[in-house]
């Protein structure tokens, strides 16, 4: 019974976090910018649809082999990455806006007349900038993930280390993110490349697996 309660609590927290993220992004992209008509509807429906599909895809993928569920998982994780980046970006901007609002209230910058049109214009410009940067960063991240692992050789000279460590080779590897998105072939290729370097030590320095 306690285990069931823990699972329900965990799932509830996940849904609350996902709902809060999507609602916050909707506020910044749709409500604050004042867009209307078909663009408002399309963006709103997209955020709602993906907010519902995100946990659904993850749950459905458990019932199917990775080969069949991988395309859906790519969509889900790509969207989740976009949402997280947007939340962090808008939060950072809101912190700046809060301090700016506080300074304006003190009158240090003189009196500033409230203008709804100006606020919508700034919100729209900010949303466009954040969206452009986030989509670019997400695309760059996917490209790096799909690219082949590259070997960068670094020669380290340490005085007084001793001759027995001459030619000692360390292979350092990180950010593999082994999970549902990585194929066995990709992982085997990375392992073969590491082994071909004939290292004395292999150092895995972080983000080995996802989940």
Give the gist of this structure.
The chain has 5 helices and 2 strands, in the order ααααβαβ. It is mainly alpha-helical and 211 residues long.
Q: How many angstroms does the end-to-end distance come to?
A: 25 Å
3D shape? extended
Q: Please give the share of residues in helix.
A: 55-70%
Strand order of the largest sheet: 1-2
Keywords for this structure?
211 residues; 66% helix; 2 domains; mainly alpha; 5 helices; 2 strands; two-stranded parallel sheet
Structural write-up:
This protein has 211 residues and is mostly helical. It folds into two domains: 2-146, no CATH class; 148-211, no CATH class. The protein is built from five helices and two strands. It has helices at 2-31, 37-61, 66-106, 116-146, 184-196; strands spanning 170-173, 201-204. It has a two-stranded parallel ribbon. The longest helix is centred in the middle third of the chain and has 41 residues, at 66-106. The radius of gyration is 24 Å and the shape is extended. It starts with a helix and ends in a 7-residue tail after the last strand. The model has no long low-confidence stretch (mean pLDDT 85).
């Amino acid at each position: 019974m306690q285990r069931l309660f823990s699972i329900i609590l965990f799932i509830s927290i996940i849904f609350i976090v996902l709902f809060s993220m999507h609602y916050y992004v909707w506020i910044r992209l749709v409500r604050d910018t004042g867009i209307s008509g078909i663009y408002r509807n399309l963006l709103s429906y997209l955020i709602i649809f993906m907010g519902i599909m995100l946990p659904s895809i993850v749950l459905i993928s458990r019932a199917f082999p990775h080969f069949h569920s991988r395309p859906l998982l790519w969509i889900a994780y790509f969207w989740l990455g976009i949402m997280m980046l947007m939340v962090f970006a808008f939060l950072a901007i809101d912190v700046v806006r809060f301090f700016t609002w506080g300074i304006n209230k003190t009158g240090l910058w003189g009196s500033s007349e409230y203008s709804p049109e100006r606020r919508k214009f700034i919100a729209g410009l900010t949303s466009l900038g954040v969206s452009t940067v986030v989509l670019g960063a997400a695309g760059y991240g996917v490209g790096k993930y799909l690219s082949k692992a590259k070997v960068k050789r670094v020669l380290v000279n340490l005085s007084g280390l001793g001759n027995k460590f001459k030619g000692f080779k360390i292979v350092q590897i990180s950010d593999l993110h082994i999970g549902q998105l990585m194929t066995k072939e990709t992982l085997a290729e990375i392992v073969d490349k590491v082994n071909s370097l004939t290292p004395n030590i292999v150092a895995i320095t972080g983000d080995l697996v996802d989940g």
